[in-house]
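Hello,

I think I submitted the alpha-D-glucopyranose job twice by accident. Can you confirm which output corresponds to this input? Input:
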Amino acid sequence: MGDDFLWWRDGIIYQIYPRSFYDTTGSGIGDLRGIIEKLDYLHDLGIDAIWLSPINPSPDRDFGYDVSDYLSIDPKFGSMDDFDELIQQTERKGIRIVMDLVLNHTSDQHPWFQESRSSRENPKRDWYIWRDGKGIGRSPNNWISIIGGSAWEWDEAMGQYYLHMYYKGQPDLNWRNPEVRENLLDVFRFWLGKGVKGFRLDVFNLYFKDEEFHDNPVRPFHLRPDQQQALKFNCDQPELKDTLAEIRKILDQYNDAYAIGETLLSNPGKAAGYCGENALHQAFLFDFLECPWNAHRFSSVFDQWEKSLGRDRWPNYVLNNHDVKRSASRYGQGEDDDRLKVASAMLLTLRGTPFMYYGEEIGMREVTLKRSQILDPVGLRFWPFYKGRDGCRTPMQWNSIENAGFSIGQPWLPLHPDWRERNVENQTKDPGSLLNFYKELIVLRRSEEVLVKGEIRLLQDVPNNVLAYERVYLTKKARIYLNFCQTPQEVNFAKEEILKGFSNKRKEFHFQNTISLFPDEALILFSSD
Ligand code: GLC
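Support: Only one job matched these inputs. Its output is below.
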């Protein structure tokens, strides 16, 4: 890659859920030293940055997304010295650290909240959102929490309600309070000072709420809690813009510092609106996570995403994260990984930053848990209709020894029953494995700038089940053909010299006027003008 390599634009960001990556103490929970020990693996894989799901102290009602101290490390993951070492060692390997900042809410165990709820006169009273009810037993307005039920919790001692857009143990901070804002902005400065390069901002578009607390418009007949009302007055409020500009100003004081926002209820227009100058570098679009295995659905998402972003803002793509069923279970068929190769080829050759999630590279499947094994509060609440998010957060499968080599203790969540076969060690040895396919693709992406920098254009004249696009950069051209179905598909081919080809199904790249794509084939052809 050229000298102008910009890590968050041209590189690959790999999300680690630290609890489940690698445990060096036998506690059954992964830790920072575990990540340090696995840095060679990550370096060989070819990623450029690690996004760490939260590692701040947390009582774990929402497994790290309820923070009780923004400026230290949870002892269950290690110490600040371990963190400093992680920064040093990753820097040496050319890998950056992206911290997950959960700044919409804290844990109810955070000292700020403890003070805030201690008396109405406490100076931190206004650091959270307290309101009188509309009458006895009647909450201040009709807002519902994203995970269901009222967003207001009655506090007997205070005789008022506090707002929580998530679990009641996650009270929302009052970003309108200048002291709160300063303290939260200091969180960025603190971690940047430690050498962190980027941030993932948890539900950033919830930071501000309507000052008058108007009722939200109700949408009857929707089952999902986050869709039962339009979040007109507690999401995407206009005041957010200035705050994002302030955050950006801080980031811009550091070389290459970056922030990506988790856009709640994302769509291409909304997410694009939060990116750019005086705003975030990127905002997540989650539409891929909802796409069925259908070439047209994927192509229409990236087409709209490209159009919404325009030329100056850079897309990002994600097939997995800690909140959704694993793509291997959404798309894979049994233990077969063919489709996952097609999906990974798409992720790594579209124009935009690819985000990977630990275990995606070995095709880890979603784990089915019994009711008694569920830990995620959302799963506990909605069982059996929705079983929660534990299934995509299970321990990384490293090898075939006890507990897949994740821990010598009892893992905090069960492993997938396939771990003896599906693991890093086995896949490293198997030239045809998904892991080796990812590695080869990443090497290809690094060596062929056109795959990173090229303009993108959908190729229209292809069968419905084929997603095809062209990338062009200077004199180089790459054409990508992804066969989404299990029968061969014919595509037209304007004959020209192929400089190089890449496929999960063939080694020879000579074509006449058509290409017959194999079932589940991902084919990349390079040519030049
Ligand atoms: C985000 C996180 C999710 C968490 C929620 C509340 O959506 O990704 O895991 O439960 O915010 O912090």
